[in-house]
Every structure is written in C-alpha cells, then in structure tokens.
Amino acid sequence: MSPQYISLTNTSLRHASFISASTLHFNQLHASATYMPQQHISTTHFNHQHDSTTPPTVLMVEVYSEVEDVMRYYGNDSVSLAHFPFNFFMLEALNNRSTLTGYDIKDTISLWLDNMPEGKWPNWVLGNHDNGRVASRLGKDMVDALNMVVLLLPGTPLTYNGEEIGTYDSQNHSIFTLFLISQNYVKLN
C-alpha cells in the first residue's frame, strides 16, 4: 500500500486561530508523514474546534491513499472527522492523454460515488500543488471540457489557481507553494 499524506488546507489554516504549536506540531513541514491512527484523532479535534467557530467553516483534508482509507476521513455516525477529504482520484487517474477516455472518467467518478459514505458530500479535483496542471498533463484543448465535467457532477468542484483558464506549469511553481505554506505557519506561531 502506498503511504498516505495529510495536511490541512490553506483555508483551514487561515481560520485556525485556536491552534497552538505546542498542542499540534504545525511548526514543522510534514511533507511525508505516513498514515497513522493519530491522524484521525487530530482530525476529530480540528472538527470539534471547527464546528464551534463563527462564521462556520469547512474542514477539508489531504489524503493520498486507497479509496477505503480516504473514505474513513469522512468519519461515521458517532465520530465526525472532516467535512470531506480531497478527491484526488480523478487527478491521479487522468495523468496523460492515454488515460483520458470516457471509460476512465466514468470509472473514476464511480469509484468515489460508490465508496462515499451515505449522506456525505462529494468533491472533484483536477489539479493541485503536488501535480502538474491540466494543460501541461493533458493539453490545453482539454481544460474547458474537464472543467465542465467537474462542474456538472454532484458536489463541490475544486479548482487549483489558474486551472480554470488553462495555466501551464511553471518553474517558479514550487517556490511559490513553499512561500504560501511558510506564511501560514508563521501566522500560527
């Protein structure tokens, strides 16, 4: 099984004034922290804090793993975890033109919807800071079509900055991402 990664989104961090670096170790970058049961406990803590904030906020988590493991981050009837884990399966499945078929798209959509716990909310991700942009991976001619697909699906479409207009990868991309992450860590301390 491949390792799992979890992090809170920048949106969550901006609203996380209740976090103290002594309780949760967000003063370090944990880019390759593998899956551990403690992650569910931390996510439960964040959810309880999140639910008590005004205005209401949404807790999303980043998890790279098998679909069964990712679905656990929705929680269950007795333990509420994240509002939703990012759905990276479309992003991972559609990584080049040879995997861009109607069958692949349908199978990827079904993988999420068929495994999602009842009553939970789906989401769709085509690109993020860990992967190449849609225009670079699949071609600029596919950007509008794929954005239309995720906009027509039930749930929340999530767009990485510039994906909606067909932005290509750039060499400064990783430097900018590290800058944004470091700015959020500074705000927490």
Automatic annotation (TrEMBL):
<dbReference type="Pfam" id="PF00128">
    <property type="entry name" value="Alpha-amylase"/>
</dbReference>
<dbReference type="GO" id="GO:0005975">
    <property type="term" value="P:carbohydrate metabolic process"/>
</dbReference>
<protein>
    <submittedName>
        <fullName>Maltase A3</fullName>
    </submittedName>
</protein>
<dbReference type="InterPro" id="IPR017853">
    <property type="entry name" value="GH"/>
</dbReference>
<dbReference type="InterPro" id="IPR006047">
    <property type="entry name" value="GH13_cat_dom"/>
</dbReference>
<feature type="domain" description="Glycosyl hydrolase family 13 catalytic">
    <location>
        <begin position="30"/>
        <end position="171"/>
    </location>
</feature>
